[in-house]
Structure formats: structure tokens, C-alpha cells
Amino acid sequence: MRLILLGCPGAGKGTQAGFIRDKYNIAAISTGDMLRAAIQSGTPLGNTVKQIVADGKLVPDDVMIALVAERIVQADCANGFLLDGFPRTIPQADALRDNHIAIDAVLEIRVPDTQLLARLSGRRVHPASGRVYHTFYHPPKVADRDDVTGEPLVQRPDDEEETVKKRIALYHATTEPLVKYYSDLNDQQAPRLLTIDGTGSVDAVSQRIFNVLSAVSTSD
Ligand code: AP5
């Protein structure tokens, strides 16, 4: 199973990616997590992208395409993978097709903009694992501590309100056109385009996702 997750910042891509990874035993690849790990470690890539990510802007396509190309050939992707945060532009989507990387389904998670700010302002993350919590909607067992390791949770610097607004606007302008891009494809490489309602509880959204994905996995 090879999947792409699309959705606004805060739509729940990272949250749901963990459940999909566990159910289908595929690698969950979050380009945002990869960039944050590089920033945290102070690698040359991290130093190049640090300000771009903090400002809520997009990292250049050539950098992202090279990063993903290197990642999806790793052993843990042999059984399939889920791309969370890639592609984000038409050139990134073209790069997948130009390199004949077949994708089974593109799953768009839709949440109205009005709900996104509340989700992102309460978000807390465990940087080492990428596990995502919310102070109200999806709290950890112990406040501000990761459920598995007990390590401290942090707030992402790009979750500051003004930056979130910029990221949402950028999604609508640059990434949302990928929905039309994929719906217009009708050749053999074309993935299925699935749209689900991302509102309601985390469990309700997972259930909707598993329902639509079970149709994909049984028809293949
Ligand atoms: P990235 O990390 O990909 O950020 P994003 O796409 O903006 O998405 P988010 O992680 O903010 O949201 P999410 O949908 O994963 O929501 P989550 O599950 O956490 O990218 C960060 C940056 O990296 C970009 O801005 C860019 O600079 C750069 N970048 C990355 N990829 C790139 C690319 N391909 N090209 C160029 N640049 C790139 O949920 C959010 C909160 O809501 C959590 O607190 C969660 O607990 C809560 N929540 C989840 N589901 C529900 C629910 N159903 N009800 C209530 N609360 C919920």
C-alpha cells in the first residue's frame, strides 16, 4: 500500500498517519518530522531550512524531492509507505510520476479552517517519535509528558497564530490544487482520490479512513 495524505495544517495527518502505519504495517514518512529532526541535529540541511520552516514557508522543491527520493528506497518502505506532507506542490507531484513511483491512493482529510487554529494552538509533540497530542482533544496521560517514554512534550515554533494563518493560506494556494491534479489524472499510474471528513473525534476520523482504505486494499 502506497498512500499520500493531503490536508491543511492541523487537519490530523500526523495523528492519523500513526494509526494507518500500525494497521497496514507500512512506513509513515512525515517530511515535516524529517525537517524538524535535521533542524534539531543542526545538519547542513537543518541549517538551510530552519528559518523557512519557522516562517511557515515551503522548502524548495529540489531539496524536498531529493529528501523523499532517498527515504522511500529504504528497507522499511518495502511493504509500502504513507507520505505525510509530500507532495505539497505540482512539481513535487510530477517528480513522483516522472520517477514512476506508483501510488495507490491519495487521501484528503478535510477540516474547515475555523477549527484548525484551536487544534494547532493546543498541539504538543514528542520530538523524538513524532507522537502528537492535544491539551484538550487528545491529552497525554500525564500533562506535558509523552505516554510511552515520559519525556517532555514541546510546542512547535511554527504553531504561533500568525504563522499558522500563513501556513493555512499557503496550503489553499499551493497544495490544495493537488486535489484537482489527482482527480484529473486518468492514466494507469493514477491513484484513487479519496476525500474524508476530518471533523469529529480522532477515533471517528480513523474509522472513516479505515472504511475507505479497506475498499482500496480489497480491490487491489
Ligand atoms: P508539516 O509538519 O508537514 O506540517 P503541516 O502540513 O502544516 O501539518 P501539521 O503537522 O501542522 O498538521 P497535521 O495535519 O499533521 O495535524 P496533527 O495530526 O498534528 O510541515 C511543517 C513545515 O515543513 C512546513 O510548513 C514546511 O515549511 C516544511 N515542509 C514539510 N514538507 C514540505 C514539502 N513537501 N515541501 C516544502 N516544505 C515542506 O493534528 C494537529 C492537532 O490537532 C494535534 O494537537 C492533534 O492532537 C489534534 N487533532 C488531530 N485530530 C483531531 C480531531 N479529530 N479532533 C480534535 N483534535 C484533533
Plain-language structure description:
This protein is α/β, with parallel strands linked by helices and 220 residues long. It has a single domain (2-211), classed as P-loop containing nucleotide triphosphate hydrolases (Rossmann fold, 3-Layer(aba) Sandwich). Helices cover 47% and strands 15% of the residues. The chain has nine helices and seven strands; from the N terminus they run E-H-E-H-H-H-E-H-E-H-E-E-H-H-E-H. The chain has helices at 13-24, 31-41, 44-54, 61-71, 90-98, 113-121, 161-175, 177-184, 202-219, and strands spanning 2-6, 27-30, 81-84, 105-110, 123-126, 131-134, 192-197. The protein has a five-stranded parallel sheet with strand order 2-3-1-4-7, sandwiched between helices. The protein has a two-stranded antiparallel sheet with strand order 5-6. Helix 4 (61-71) packs parallel to helix 5 (90-98) and helix 6 packs across helix 7 (161-175). The longest helix is centred in the last third of the chain and has 18 residues, at 202-219. BIS(adenosine)-5'-pentaphosphate (AP5) binds at residues 7, 9-15, 31-32, 35, 52-53, 56-59, 64, 85-86, 88, 92, 119-120, 122-123, 132-134, 137-138, 158, 167, 200-202, 205.
